[in-house]
Amino acid sequence: MPGITERVYPREMDHTNSIERTIYDIFTKRYLVAKEWLEFHFKGREIRILDMACGSGYGSEILSELGKVTGVDLDPEAVRYAEMYYSTKNNRFIVGNAEDYDFLGKISPFDAIVSMATLEHLKDPIAYLEWIRGALKPEGVGILCFPAAVTMDWAAPHHLRDISKSGAVRMFSKSGFRIKERFFQSYRLDIRELKKRFAGNKEVPVPPVGRFLGHYILNPHHLILRIYEALLAGGVRFSDQVYMILPDR
Fold this sequence. Notes:
It is a single chain. This protein has a single domain, classed as Vaccinia Virus protein VP39 (Rossmann fold), CATH 3.40.50. The protein is built from nine helices and seven strands; from the N terminus they run H-E-H-E-H-E-H-E-H-E-H-E-H-H-H-E. The protein is an alpha/beta fold. The chain has helices spanning 18-41, 58-63, 76-85, 101-107, 125-135, 165-174, 191-198, 209-218, 220-233; strands spanning 47-52, 67-73, 91-95, 110-116, 136-147, 177-189, 236-247.
């Protein structure tokens, strides 16, 4: 069974472990916030939702209380898992790529497109956002989530970028969206507990030492941040920014 990577498998997690419990809280909170906001925005009416990069499917199950959900993920194993454990009468899961616009065009349009932890992985996030804008029904909305902290030292090459709060504003404006609301969450993860949890886990996307050193030479302020977290802050900051966006029509 998959370990704790950038995909979360809630049924397989040790919820008595503080790190795994925190990771579970972080990942599920994104979807609970999205569900609550969509329910309010659409005044409780049934809607059609795309859950892009759905992973193991737990978020699609949460969203399926609002209407029909199509969960899409690049990983066939994750999709099979989602079908096994999180299928409901209101959702379906399919293998697909967020950068395959021919495929995406065949499954749209949607009232809402929820895309958690996607933009930081894409070669051209503006093109993806522009696709979202065109794939939404009239009065449709997007909900996008990505890290609000530095990740490029440890998450490269899985992450292609970090997106600051000001960078997010520019990115949405450039792709034809306006921000309706935003949500931030932040946790401190104890470094000692992280080392215990991930020691020897080959599925965790940790780059070799040489990549760390190269990154810190080019970004010395990131090294200063990590030293501060290790010596003074008591842990690594794990944080998200979630944006509810509307096409600027």
